[in-house]
């Protein structure tokens, strides 16, 4: 779509952050090794109550054509008026990727005829987009790389066509027509399917943190056009093909791999890659040419005479900046340096803002959560809770256990009321009943005991019953210590404080 | 400066989805060239250092608040459509 930008970008070393340390993604052909060059154009539907240029509603799933204004239906004489919120969301997104915010941007008309586009043109921003160059940091197998972002512009979405409702007719629903989109164009910096996946996931995480797009690829509120070309190492960019409208991270990765292999085959067979638009068929796992009509790409862009240039005052941009929450990279760094989490755990928790919010809500129940509490909470969240949610087929937003209950459970372990294994039992009951952990421990007698008198009594009985083993232990068979621990724990139904048991056993066995 | 020829006229007519006869094409070539030539007189003026004029009155883009102001007007919209069914606009089947 943006051929001029694609071509003008200087070549980049495959790995500029790591001095070439990262293992390169290479495809072996008959004539040697090939590398792939990928750029992504992501269309992200902006979260707003009304459309980009009209006061029609944007809610998903409404009755067909019930959210269409005279502007969206392109009635003659109607004039577009820009929605402040859509502009605000684009600027906030731009700031979040560290991009240049253009104080002046302009709207252009992209002209083409299609049944889902009543105006006969899409209002977009070709020449002067609202957001310029930025970048985002991706992580593939623990290696960080920066992927450049060329621009973000705002434009109108088209309506929706349905072809399967009638044998000879297509049905048109214009509810989506005119909803604001951000087109986020990466530089051709991506060098593997895994990097493309990491880029999409990171971009989606940022959009969700910012709250400018829900990132829902299944409902189509985020979709990607994928530009792929291949080349021998060190050679200039090859001719690219654009795979349109791919709607999941997995499909994007599969489409890149298939398309790269197809292009290598064509070139090695003596053919030439034709720059064209292709479609990814996810059932067959292949891309195929969209036989586009001649002249289909002659969009005859020109400035939209209905819209004045968009000028953003500094105060507007400042407000956008101040409204941003802590973003994933900053949050991750804070978790590592201030809470002492491992980089891996910090990445898992910050990967989506709901998990991070849940984690922070949990920490709020501690007066001064130290690194030990934070680590315990993080580990419990990413292993116990995630595991339980996976089994239940739920996600963090509809967890049967609240952050407060999670925090209570961690606190009960921290103060010695529950041992690790008792905590697991209590958690199982929490999942089933929704009760608070302290109540469960109380009612079901699952509290750990540190009562040295009671434990000592049990140990003395076990030692008396196992005189032979005691003798063996005392004559050097250290491994038997575990046997005594097990016997004691069993006798106390798992409720004895393991630290106290260890201490007492050592003392009594030594006697 | 004559830049428009018959093949360009045919191409832009096609892009604009306008059917033109050969007679019309022949007539339009000089007409369009005349219109372009008229506009090109502006090129004679030196505009070095002059900011592009985007509006004759000094004003910038007005932004509206994000409010839903349009009710459901589906029936009125569909009443203007050549064809509609079950709340949808309908057109002869278009499939890529």
How would you sum up this structure in a few lines?
Chain A is an alpha+beta fold and 511 residues long. Chain A is built from 16 helices and 17 strands.
Identify the quaternary structure here. Answer: heterodimer
Q: What summary fits the major beta sheet of chain A?
A: 9 strands, mixed
Share in helix of chain B: 25-40%
The CA-CA distance between the termini of chain B, in Å, is 41 Å
Q: What's the helix count of chain A?
A: 16
- Assign a percent range to the helix content of chain A: 25-40%
Specify Rg of chain A, calculated over alpha carbons. 30 Å
Q: What structural class do you assign from the helix and strand content of chain A?
A: alpha+beta
State the total count of DSSP E strands of chain A: 17
Enumerate the strands of the largest sheet of chain B in spatial order, edge to edge or round the barrel: 2-3
Mean pLDDT of chain A: 90
Low confidence ranges of chain B? none
**Quick one: which chains have the greatest interface?**
A-B, 51 and 37 residues
User: What class, by secondary structure content of chain B?
Assistant: alpha+beta
Could you report the average pLDDT of chain B, rounded to the nearest whole number? 90
**How many helices of chain B in DSSP terms?**
3
Estimate the global geometry of chain A from the Cα principal axes: elongated
Which series of helices and strands of chain B comes N to C?
HHEHEE
Can you characterise this structure?
Chain A has 16 helices and 17 strands. Chain A is α+β, with helices and mostly antiparallel strands. Chain A has three domains: about 325 residues, no CATH class; about 120 residues, no CATH class; about 60 residues, Arc Repressor Mutant, subunit A. In chain A, α4 links the parallel β13 and β14. The longest helix of chain A is centred in the C-terminal third of the chain and has 22 residues. Chain A is elongated. The relative contact order of chain A is 0.09. By secondary structure, chain B is an alpha+beta fold. Chain B has a domain of about 40 residues. Helices cover about 35% and strands about 10% of the residues of chain B. Chain B has three helices and three strands. Chain B has a two-stranded antiparallel ribbon. β10 of chain A pairs antiparallel with β3 of chain B, so a sheet runs across the interface.
């Amino acid at each position: 779509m943006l051929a001029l930008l694609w071509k003008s970008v200087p070549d980049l070393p495959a790995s500029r952050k790591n001095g070439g340390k990262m293992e390169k993604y290479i495809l072996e052909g008959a004539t040697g090794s090939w590398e792939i060059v990928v750029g992504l154009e992501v269309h992200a539907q902006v979260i707003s109550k009304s459309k980009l240029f009209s006061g029609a509603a944007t809610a998903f799933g409404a009755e067909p054509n019930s959210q269409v204004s005279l502007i969206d239906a392109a009635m003659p004489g109607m004039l577009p008026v820009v929605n402040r919120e859509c502009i605000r969301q684009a600027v906030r997104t731009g700031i979040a990727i560290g991009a240049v915010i253009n104080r002046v941007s302009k709207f252009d008309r992209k002209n083409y005829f299609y049944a889902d586009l009543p105006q006969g043109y899409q209002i977009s921003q070709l020449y002067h987009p609202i957001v310029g160059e930025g970048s985002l940091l991706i992580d593939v197998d623990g290696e960080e790389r920066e992927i450049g972002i060329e621009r973000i512009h705002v434009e109108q979405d088209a309506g929706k066509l349905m072809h399967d409702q009638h044998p000879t007719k297509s049905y048109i629903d214009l509810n989506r027509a005119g909803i604001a989109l951000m087109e986020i164009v990466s530089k051709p910096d991506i060098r593997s399917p895994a990097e493309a996946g990491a880029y999409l996931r990171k971009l989606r995480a940022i959009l969700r943190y910012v709250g400018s797009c829900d990132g829902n690829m299944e409902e189509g509120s985020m979709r990607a056009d994928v530009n792929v070309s291949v080349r021998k190492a060190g050679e200039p960019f090859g001719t690219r093909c654009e795979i349109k409208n791919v709607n999941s991270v997995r499909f994007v990765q599969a489409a890149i791999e298939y398309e790269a292999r197809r292009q290598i085959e064509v070139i090695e067979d003596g053919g030439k890659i034709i720059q064209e638009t292709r479609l990814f068929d996810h059932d067959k796992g292949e891309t195929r040419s969209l036989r586009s009509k001649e002249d289909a790409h002659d969009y005859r862009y020109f400035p939209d005479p209905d819209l004045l240039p968009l000028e953003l005052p500094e105060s507007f941009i400042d407000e956008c900046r101040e409204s941003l929450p802590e973003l994933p990279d900053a949050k991750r760094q804070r978790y590592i340096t201030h809470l002492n989490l491992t980089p891996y755990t910090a990445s898992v928790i910050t990967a989506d803002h709901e998990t991070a919010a849940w984690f922070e809500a949990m920490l709020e129940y501690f007066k001064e959560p130290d690194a030990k509490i934070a680590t315990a909470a993080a580990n419990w969240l990413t292993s116990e809770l995630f595991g339980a949610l996976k089994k239940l087929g739920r996600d963090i937003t509809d967890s049967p256990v609240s952050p407060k209950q999670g925090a209570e459970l961690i606190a009960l372990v921290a103060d010695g009321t529950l041992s690790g294994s008792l905590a697991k039992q209590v958690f199982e009951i929490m999942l089933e009943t929704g009760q608070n952990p302290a109540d469960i421990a109380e009612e079901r007698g699952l509290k750990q005991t540190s009562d040295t008198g009671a434990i000592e009594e049990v140990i003395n009985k076990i030692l008396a019953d196992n005189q032979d083993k005691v003798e063996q232990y005392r004559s050097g068979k250290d491994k038997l210590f575990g046997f005594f621990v097990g016997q004691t724990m069993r006798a106390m139904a798992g409720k004895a404080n393991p630290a106290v048991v260890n201490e007492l056993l050592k003392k009594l066995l030594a006697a | 400066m004559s830049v428009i020829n018959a093949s360009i006229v045919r191409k832009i007519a096609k892009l604009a989805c306008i059917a033109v006869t050969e007679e019309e094409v022949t007539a339009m070539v000089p007409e369009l060239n005349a219109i372009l030539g008229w506009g090109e007189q502006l090129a004679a003026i030196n505009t070095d250092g002059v900011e592009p004029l985007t509006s004759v009155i000094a004003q910038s883009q007005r932004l509206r608040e994000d409010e839903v102001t349009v009710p459901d007007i589906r029936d009125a919209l569909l009443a203007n459509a050549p064809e509609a069914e079950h709340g949808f606009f309908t057109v002869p089947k278009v499939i890529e």
